[in-house]
Amino acid sequence: MYIKIKVTTEAKKERIIKKSSDHFDISVKEPAERNLANKKIVKLLRDYFKVYNREVRIVSGHHSPSKIISIPEN
Predict the structure, then answer these.
(1) CA distance 46 to 20
(2) pLDDT greater than 70 at residue 8
(3) CA dihedral defined by 14, 43, 62, 74, rounded to 10 degrees?
(4) What is the C-alpha separation between 25 and 15, in angstroms, rounded?
(5) Calpha distance 34→50 (Å, rounded)
(6) Alpha carbon distance 48, 40 (integer Å)
(7) Across 5-18, average pLDDT
(8) Residue 45 main-chain phi, psi, to 5 deg
(9) CA distance 69 to 10
(10) At 72, is the secondary structure helix, strand, or coil?
(11) Distances in whole angstroms, Cα of residue 61 to Cα of each of 13, 38, 50
(12) What is the pLDDT of residues 21-56, one digit of tens each?
């Protein structure tokens, strides 16, 4: 399954807001440097979708606030 996310980095509070079934807004505390924000996004989505042993990966948008994420189907 693919989802679209819009990321806000260096936020005061981390949160995931579900806009629709495949669109999310995510805020993370980490800066957009040295891949820190991307790693945190993947960790938050693993926790949100409860896919700990499966691969969650960024398909598109590694250097952009708008990203497409691949999440395995249950």
Answers:
(1) 18
(2) yes
(3) -120
(4) 8
(5) 26
(6) 12
(7) 96
(8) -70, -35
(9) 20
(10) coil
(11) 22, 10, 23
(12) 999 999 999 999 999 999 999 999 999 999 987 789
The three state secondary structure string of 1-64 is CEEEEEEECCCCCCEEEEEECCEEEEECCCCCCCCHHHHHHHHHHHHHHCCCCCCCEEEECCCC
Which residues share a beta bridge with 25?
6, 17
Three-state DSSP class for residue 71: coil
CATH number for the domain whose boundaries are 2-70: 3.30.1200.10
- Mean of the per-residue pLDDT values of the chain: 93
End-to-end Cα distance, the chain: 10
Tokens read off for 24: 């999310």
To which residue do tokens 């820190």 refer? 36
